[in-house]
Amino acid sequence: MQLKLLYESEAYRATRVWVPVANYVDSPDGPELFVFVEWVRSSAVEEISKLARSIGLEYTIEDSKITVYGYR
């Protein structure tokens, strides 16, 4: 899975995205608030698309990967 933060120029590879602290995601520099997530990309298309649809997040599917957008 890849995760791109709004203020970073490059995405980073994440081994786990959601951390036990509500409203935060894992990042190389420690927990970041969800509001700073630009997008999340994964090869788990079916699972992630169902989740994104259920909570109303915009997404695209390309090259067998799903990208879910926090901001678009």
TrEMBL record:
Protein name as annotated: Uncharacterized protein
